[in-house]
Amino acid sequence: MIILFLPLLLLITHALPAFAASIPQYDIVAAYSEEEHRIYGSEKISFTNDGDEPLSEIYLFLYPNLYLEKDPDIDQSLYKRAYPVDFNAGEQFITSIQDLKGQNLPYFPELFKKRILMKIRLPTPIPPKGTFAFLVHFVTVIPEKYGVFGYYRDLVTLQGGWHPYLSFFSEGKWNFLLPPSPSRFQIHFTLNEHLRLLASVPPEFENEEGSDATFLLRANALPTVSLSIGKLTSEAGQVGPVNLVYHFLPRDKTYAKQVLRIAEEAADHFLKQVGLLPPTQLQMMESYLYQDLVTSGPNLLYVSNKLFKVFPLLKRFHEASVARGVFLLLWQERLPWEEIWMIEGLADLETAQFIGAKYGGQQSLERWLSPISFIPIIDQILYSQDLPLRQIYFKEKVAPLINEDIQFFNHSRPEGTTIFSKLQNLLGHETVRRAVEDYKKKIQTGEQISFRQVLYGISGKKLDWFFEQWLTSNPVLDFGIEEIRREKTEEGYKTTLKIKKHGEGIEPIEILATQENGSKIPLVWEGDREEHQEVLITPSRVDIVELDPHRDSSDPNRLNNRDPRLWKFLLDRVPVPSFNLNTQVLSYEVGLLFQPVYDNTNQIGFGFSHSDVGNSTSLQFSHIFRNNHTATVGLSYQGPQTPKDKPPEEQAGTVHLGYSLSYPNIPLLVGSVQRLLGRYPKFNIALGYDQRFTGGKYEHLVTTTIDTRRTFSFSNYHEIATHAMVGQSFGTLFENSRFFLGGDRGMRGYTPLRFEGDNILLLSAEYRFPLYYESDVNLRVALTHTLQGAIFADVGTVTDSRNIFRVGDYKKDIGAGIRWYIDSLGFYPLTFRFDVAIPVGPAIEAEKKPHYYITGGMPF
Q1: Which of 397, 515, 695, 840 has its C-alpha lying 20 to 30 A from 167's C-alpha?
Q2: Which band of pLDDT confidence, cut at 50, 70 and 90, is reported for residue 7?
Q3: CA-to-CA distance for 848 and 842, rounded, in angstroms?
Q4: Does residue 18 have a pLDDT over 50?
C-alpha cells in the first residue's frame, strides 16, 4: 500500500498563483492504492464569493457516493450490467475540513441524493468579492464496476469527481443541478511505478521514491480532471495540427487500429469544414463502459472495450460514435467559451455530415432495423427503453434512470441534439438552420460570440425562458390525443383534433395528419397551454393523426400519440431449437404475434410447436389487465404423443379459454425472448379450459398450474435457483397426454415420454457459479461474455392419482451443465446451455443412462 504524507505546508506554500477571481482553484496531493483501490488525498480549495451578499456556507459534492447503495426503485438487472461480479459500494468520505490556520470547520450531509452533497458552515461569512481557502482531507473508495467511475481487472476509469469539488456557484447563488464550474488545478498524484497514469492533461514526472512515482498535473479552466490508471499500450496519429493518441488494452490491438483510423478521418473532416486549429492533442482511452460506446471527459474520450466487436453491418454506427466524440472535443477546443449543449449539437450535426459523406445519405439505425422489426430482439431495440442498445444508438429524449456522467448525474438535462430539435419545432427548421450557418461564419472570422446571441438576432425572439426550462428544470410532459371528430361537409371533410398536455412546462409538439389520398398535413403546437384544438378542412378524409412522429419530444408515454394505433407483428416464438441427444428429437416453437406499437395489453397470436410430446397449432387473443391478470381465448389443433404403454391420442381441434396471474410483471412480451434471457415471473397461476369441436366428440379438459421460481444470488452469476410446479387436470380430452415428467424443462434425467399422468409435482434446484468472467471473444455475430457452471437436482412425480405427495413414488435425478452468456450481434444478452443428467435410485433399464441436452435459455 502507498503511504501518503500530506503536509499542510505543501498545500499552502506550493499553491498556484492567484487566478481570475471567479474561478475556483484546487491544489491537490493524492495517492492511489492499487491493493485497496482507494485514493487518499488532501486538497486546498480557493473560492471567491462573486455575489453581493456575505456567504456563510459552502457546498461540496462527493460524487462517488452515487454508488454507495442500491436504489430499490431501479430494475436490479441494471446492476448486473454495471457490476461484473457483484454490487460493491463506491464511496467518498471526508476525514476533516480545516481553514488555513488548522481550525476545524463544521460540516454535515445535506439532504440531496444519497449523501452526495456536504454542507460546510463558516465561522466568519465570506464578504462580497472576498476569497476563502480551506483544506479538505478525503478518502475515495473506487467500486469494482463498469462505466465512467470504477475499476475492473487492471484498468481504472475516473471521469471525474474522484476528489470533493464545489457545487456550481454564480452571482451569489448555489445551483446543485449544474455541472462543476471551470476551475484551475494543480495535482501531485502518486501511484505504483508499474502503473500508467493518463489524464485530461499530460502528466509531468516529478520524482520517484521506492516503487512509487509522483506526477504533476496542471490544468486551467477545466470543470474536472479525468484519470485513467492501468497497463495500457498506445498508438498515435497526426492530422495537421491535431495529434491523436489511443491508449488501449494490448489484446485489443486489432480494434485499436480501427478506432484510430476513424478518429483520423473525423479530424480531417473537421479541419476541412471548420478550419485550422492551434496544436491540439486528443487522447482516447479504452474503458469498460456499459451505458455508451464512447463518452467524453475534459480533453479526452473514453472508448468502450466492445467497440467494433459487433455484427459487421452495425460497425458504421460505432464509427459514428467515435466521430461524434472527436467532434465534441475539437469543437470544445475551437469554442472554449460556448455552452456544452451547443457543442453537443454541433458535434451531432458534424457527425451526420461525416457519416453521410462516407456512406451516402443519412444513416439511420432505426430505418435499417424497421424492416426486420418482427424479430423480437429487434422489436425490443426499437420500442423498449429498457435495453442498453437504445441508450447507445438512439438519442433518447427521456433520460435514463441512472446517468453516471458527471455532467448529468445530478440533473439529466436533454442532450444538445434534443434541444436543437425543440428549437426547430419552436422557431422552424429554416430559422435554426440560418442561425447555425450565421454562427459558423462569425466564428470563422474570429468573432467570439455565443450561439444564443446569434439565435436571438435571427429569430427576433428572446428565448431565456426556453433555455431555463430545458437546461435547468427539464420537465416531463405527456402529450395525448384526447378526441378526434370527423364529419362530411359541403367543402369536403372537417376534422377537429383535441390535444391535451399533462405536466408543467412548454414544449413545441409536431402534429402530423395524413389523409386517405396519402397527402400529409404537418402542424406545430407550441405546447404553451393545457389543451389545444385544430380544425382541418380537407378534400380527403383524415385517416391518421400522430403526435411527435419523429419522437423529438420528451414525452415518455407514446400510447396516446397516434390514432388509430399502429399495429406490428412479431415472431412470437423464435425457433431456438432444443436438441435431446437421447431421443434425437429437435424441439422448436415458432409463432406470430400481432399487437399495437407501444401497447402491451392486447395481443393476437398464432403459433406452432414441435417436441417429443407432440405438435400443436394455435390462434389466440390475449388481453393483459392491470395487476398482471391475463385472459386468453382462441382455437387450437393438437396432435399429442403418448407413452409407449398407452394408446395413442387422436388429433383434435379445441376452443381454448385461459386465465393467468403473474408476479412480477416481466416487461418482455415474447415468450422466446423471456426464455433466452432467463427472466421469468417469480410466481404464476394459470387456469385453462379446452373444449373439443372436431370428430363429432365434445370432450373437454380443465388444467390448473401453480409455478414458482426464485433465485438467491450471492453475486453476479453465482446463485442458487429454485423451481416448483404443481399441476392438476380434469376431463375426458387427451387422457393419455396431460403432463409429462421428463425433458429439458422437467426432470432432465428422464426422456419426455417415459412418464405421463393427470397430475404433476416438480421440484428443481440449481447451484450456478461463474467459471470465467468476460471471455470477450468476438464471433462476429456474437460477443462471448460469461461462462457459468451449474450443478442441479430434480425431484418429481406424475400420476393419475389426485395425491401427488406420495414421497415413495418420487423420481429423482442429478446433473451438471454449462451456461454460456453471449451478446448477440454484439449487444443483446442471450444464454445457451448444455446439460447432462442421470436418474438416481430405482429406474427402468432404458432410463439408466446419461441424458444430454443442447438448448437456448435457462430452464427456470
Answers
A1: 397
A2: very low
A3: 9
A4: no
CB within 8 A of 64, min separation 6: which ones?
Answer: 90, 91, 92, 140, 141, 142, 143, 149, 161, 162
| Best CA proximity match to 501, nearest among 521, 523, 482, 484 | 482
Work out whether the CA dihedral 273, 274, 279, 285 comes out positive or negative. Answer: negative
Rounded Cα distance between 320 and 8, Å, is 48
- Say if residues 89 and 67 touch (Cβ distance below 8 Å): yes
Q: Give yes or no for residue 649 having a pLDDT over 90.
A: no
Q: Which residues pair with 824 in a beta bridge?
A: 782, 828
Tracing cell 457490476 back to the chain, one arrives at: 83
Reading the block at residue 69, the C-alpha cell is: 447503495
Cell numbers given for 502: 399533462
pLDDT tens sequence across 216-257: 999 988 999 999 999 899 999 999 999 999 999 998 888 999
Q: Taking the complete model, does pTM exceed 0.90, yes or no?
A: no
Q: Among 742, 747, 739, 703, which residue's Cα sits nearest to residue 723?
A: 747
CA–CA dist 282, 330 (Å, integer) = 8
Single-letter amino acid code for the residue at 724: A
Q: Determine the 3-state secondary structure of 531 from DSSP.
A: strand
Which residues have a Cβ under 8 Å from the Cβ of 476 and sit 6 or more positions away? 398, 503, 554, 556
Average pLDDT over residues 112-120: 82
Least confident of 297-301, 367-371, 621-625: 367-371
Share of the chain above pLDDT 70, in %: 89
Q: Alpha-carbon Rg of the chain, whole angstroms?
A: 31
* Whole-angstrom distance, CA of residue 602 vs CA of residue 597: 10
Which comes out higher in pLDDT, residue 785 or 393?
785
Q: Which helix (H) or strand (E) holds 653?
A: strand 652-663
Q: How does strand 294-297 pair with strand 300-304?
A: antiparallel
Please write the tens of the pLDDT for every residue from 341-384. 999 999 999 998 998 888 876 666 667 677 777 776 667 666 65
Element (H, E) at 220: strand 212-222
248 closest CA partner among 285, 282, 199, 295: 285
CA atoms within 13 A on the CB side of 229: 25
d(CA 739, CA 737): 6
The distance of Cα 271 from the centroid of its chain, to the nearest Å, equals 33
123: its cell numbers: 465561522
Amino acid in the structure at residue 386: D
| Domains, the chain, ordered by start | 19-230 (2.60.40.1730), 233-363 (1.10.390.10), 416-473 (no CATH), 478-563 (2.60.40), 569-856 (2.40.160.50)
Q: Which helix (H) or strand (E) holds 238?
A: strand 233-239
Cα distance between residue 496 and residue 536, in whole Å? 6
C-alpha cell at 400: 435514463
